[in-house]
Design goal:
This protein has 6 helices and 2 strands. It is mainly alpha-helical. It has one domain. A two-stranded parallel ribbon has the order 1-2. The protein is elongated, with a radius of gyration of 19 Å.
Length: 148
């Protein structure tokens, strides 16, 4: 499939959108980059081609533009498997602590607490990196669409 061909690009975007909807519904974000149906640059190119083709034919509604922008920016949520594992463990540990008794002293003795303490800095860095990439992708999407 050629992400520069509007018909192929449309099919690629549909495949990615299906997977994205499933991942969002199942709360799998961040998600593994190796789970994407195509490499990130290929999906970006396919979305760009689709958005430009729709704009050129007057079919790019505000709702569709917003959907494509969201899909484009959510590519930032697809990261290496090790980072997904770290973030999943971090989230599970936080959930476990939230479910435990409110006695702080008891919580600080748990494995969940140790996991949070040991991984919070790295989890924060991952979150900041994803946020930065999201903003970059949003700007990129708006820029290429403005030039269409």
């Amino acid at each position: 499939m050629d992400p520069l061909d509007p018909l192929d690009a449309q099919q690629m975007v549909i495949e990615y959108a299906r997977m994205l909807e499933r991942d969002v519904t199942e709360n799998r974000h961040p998600a593994r980059v190796d789970g994407l149906p195509y490499a990130k640059p290929v999906i970006k190119s396919a979305i760009r081609t689709s958005a430009r083709a729709l704009a050129a034919t007057g079919q790019l509604t505000d709702e569709l533009r917003e959907y494509l922008e969201t899909a484009y920016t959510l590519l930032a949520e697809y990261v290496d498997a090790e980072l997904v594992d770290l973030m999943t463990l971090y989230r599970e540990s936080a959930d476990a602590l939230a479910e435990q008794s409110p006695v702080a002293r008891a919580k600080t003795q748990t494995a969940a607490w140790r996991t949070l303490a040991e991984s919070s800095s790295l989890a924060g860095e991952v979150a900041r990196a994803v946020t930065a990439e999201t903003e970059t992708l949003r700007d990129e999407f708006r820029s290429f669409l403005a030039s269409a």
